[in-house]
Structure formats: structure tokens, C-alpha cells
Design brief:
It contains twelve helices and eleven strands. The chain has about 375 residues and is α/β, with parallel strands linked by helices. α9 links the parallel β8 and β9. The mean pLDDT is about 90.
């Protein structure tokens, strides 16, 4: 059922029936109220507008006469089907945002070999549905309160435990902030670190969304070439030694696939510590390393608190979850938590708790092993 936004102007002396019928009719013709949408009952809309039920009834009857709405008795009142929609001429035809990156229409099935989408046939859909349903039923009778903007503690606890085993990282749940994917993490960091007007190293070739996001945030992206050993740190220093940020896919470079060498890892950490720069470690696909064991995270070598580790579940579970996370150096925990609370709190609590339970019962690690076998084949 749609909640209608109707402003009545009693001071004009105009008929309230006319005003209600005109407002609803305009919403229908402009497509705001879609064909088949259910309208509020006479009683509910009358209470919402502070008018008599008879006034709303008369407005509805007028719209029925104009064949804009239909009454189905006890089932309710609905917008008529097959309505002509007349959009105002100044509204442009909408297009996908960032079409140079997102060339495939949102919401449509992925194409064959489309990059960045996990194999649908490898996902344990029935198991996930069962876990999600159990968690949803528990949450429905739980405490009514605002959720933690940094993310649900059970999920942050499971992520910390997973990273300890899989990525060689020692961190506490307090250092973890749940984000709306990788882009959500990047947006939080740009605000929290006050990076506007500063330079940032980006791998060349690298992830184009990072370059566009930083440019939109007022930063200066500096492309740094990638060689067989990964990001060329010395070249980055030569091009912009005073940069405030470096974004690196250390575990498995995107798109070339090499691992950042140990020597370059240490040099990158030295650069960050000496100039107070920050390193964002985008741990792209390290959990799906197909040959051998993934190298330890760059963050596991950090002794000066300069690395911010970012991961997501988009490539391993599904992009629609919109769940990612950051592991923050202790010095940034309070600041990033405040920015998250003010600007971008963690998303769906139900999805977070379902994922936490999925990980707690060992399903996530089993799923990763299955996906590795599938992708290797």
C-alpha cells in the first residue's frame, strides 16, 4: 500500500475533494503511483489528511469515474491497469550511473564470463535461505532499537576470527566496520581521513571505480605502473612522494593477478610510515586464490598502523548483499565509527546476522573450498 503525500490548502477556500482527487490523479498520470498500486482506505487516508471519510470517498468516486482507479470491494482500491503515463518534459530519460564501468544493465542476469560476479550454480541457495529465515524470525521478536552503525557485533566477531585463520591478521571486532561494499568503505575513508585536495596512488592498470571515486571526492589520482612484482613503489615516490593515500591489491593484483612482492611490501610500508600516508589494501579475490595458499595480508606486516584492510563478500557470496568491511588501525577506530554513524551506517541487519550465522556454522569456509574446486575446473 502506498502512503500518499497530499498537501491540502484550506486557506484558499477550494474544495477539499477537488484537491485530493487532483493530487492523486496527477501522481497516477506522472507514474509516481504505478498501475496496480493499492491506495489507502477511505478511513486511513482521512485520518492522515485530517478530513472526513466522506470527503475521501467523494474524491475516490471521482477518480473511479475518470477510470484512473478501480474499487475491488473488501480487497481495496487500486490504480487502474494500462494507464497512459505523461512525464513532465523536463525530466530526462534515466540511464545507468557510470555507464563506462557498469555496461551491463542493473538487475539483469549476468552475461557469460562477466567479470566480478560469482557463479550462481555454485551458491548454496537453499542453505542460505534456511539460515536467513531462522535469523529473520529471531530478529522479528528482538529488541526494538537503533542498530550499531559500525555493524552487528556477531558479524564483526566472525570476520575477525576468519581473518586470523585465512589472512594471518590479528585484529579485534572493535577494529572492524561493516560497509556497503568496497565503494562504501572508500566513501567512509575519504571523509574520515579528510583527503580532499590530496593525491592518491592508484595501480595502473587498476580498478577504474577507485579512480573515479577519488576524483569525485576532490582528490588527485596518480597512476603508478605495475610490474611482475606488483605496484612499483619507487615510481610512485618519484611521481607523488607526498601522496596521502595508496590503494593496492596486494594479494592478487586486479586485473593482472600477481602478488605484491615482500620487498615491495616493506618499501610501501616504509613510505607510509615516513610520510604519514595511508594504505588501503583492497584484498581483491585473495580468498579465491586457486594455486597454493594466499599470501598473508599486507596489513599483517603493518607495525605503524598505516594499513586499512578492505574486503567484501560480493565475489564469494553475491553482490546483492552489499556487504563489505574494513579493518582499521586502532588510531582510526573512533573517527571512522563517528563518520559511519553520521553519514553511512552499516546496511541490512538481517543480512549481517544471516552472514554471521553462515560463517559461525562453518558454511562460508566450505563454500569457499567448493568454489575454488569449481573455478579451478
Amino acid at each position: 500500500m502506498r502512503e500518499l503525500h497530499i498537501v491540502l490548502r484550506r486557506e484558499t477556500g477550494g474544495s477539499l475533494v477537488d484537491q485530493i482527487a487532483t493530487a492523486i490523479g496527477l501522481s497516477i498520470r506522472q507514474g509516481t503511483l504505478y498501475a496496480g498500486a493499492r491506495l489507502p482506505s477511505w478511513r486511513d487516508l482521512a485520518i492522515q489528511l485530517g478530513v472526513a471519510r466522506g470527503t475521501v470517498r467523494a474524491a475516490y468516486e471521482r477518480l473511479i469515474d475518470e477510470q484512473l482507479i478501480v474499487s475491488q470491494g473488501a480487497a481495496g482500491t487500486f490504480v487502474a491497469q494500462s494507464l497512459p503515463v505523461h512525464l513532465p518534459p523536463d525530466i530526462p530519460t534515466p540511464r545507468n550511473p557510470l555507464p563506462e564501468i557498469y555496461q551491463h544493465p542493473f538487475g539483469e542476469p549476468p552475461r557469460v564470463f562477466q567479470v566480478g560476479v560469482p557463479a550462481q550454480d555454485g551458491f548454496p541457495g537453499k542453505l542460505w535461505s534456511r539460515v536467513a529465515a531462522q535469523v529473520a524470525s529471531q530478529a522479528a521478536v528482538g529488541m526494538v532499537s537503533y542498530p550499531d552503525p559500525r555493524g552487528e557485533l556477531p558479524l564483526r566477531t566472525e570476520i575477525a576470527a576468519y581473518l586470523s585463520v585465512a589472512r594471518g591478521m590479528s585484529c579485534s571486532p572493535a577494529q572492524i566496520v561493516i560497509t556497503s561494499g568496497y565503494s562504501g568503505a572508500l566513501g567512509l575513508l575519504v571523509h574520515a581521513l579528510e583527503l580532499k585536495g590530496k593525491a592518491a596512488w592508484l595501480e595502473d592498470p587498476g580498478y577504474p571505480l577507485s579512480r573515479m571515486a577519488l576524483a569525485m571526492a576532490g582528490m588527485t589520482p596518480v597512476p603508478v605502473p605495475v610490474t611482475a612484482e606488483g605496484l612499483d613503489v619507487e615510481e610512485g615516490i618519484a611521481r607523488a612522494g607526498d601522496a596521502a593515500l595508496a590503494i593496492v591489491t596486494a594479494g592478487q593484483q586486479a586485473p593482472l593477478g600477481m602478488t605484491l612482492s615482500l620487498a615491495r611490501r616493506h618499501r610501501l610500508l616504509e613510505w607510509a610510515a615516513s610520510g604519514c600516508g595511508w594504505i588501503v589494501e583492497d584484498d581483491y579475490l585473495s580468498e579465491l586464490q586457486l594455486t597454493g595458499r594466499a599470501a598473508p595480508a599486507l596489513a599483517s606486516l603493518d607495525r605503524h598502523g598505516r594499513v586499512i584492510y578492505v574486503g567484501t563478500f560480493s565475489k564469494t557470496i553475491r553482490p546483492g548483499l552489499r556487504l563489505g568491511f574494513m579493518v582499521l588501525p586502532p588510531a582510526l577506530v573512533e573517527r571512522v565509527g563517528e563518520v559511519a554513524a553520521a553519514l553511512a551506517p552499516a546496511g541490512s541487519v538481517a543480512n549481517q546476522l544471516a552472514l554471521a550465522e553462515f560463517m559461525r556454522k562453518g558454511h562460508y569456509l566450505r563454500h569457499l573450498r567448493k568454489m575454488k574446486r569449481l573455478y579451478r575446473a
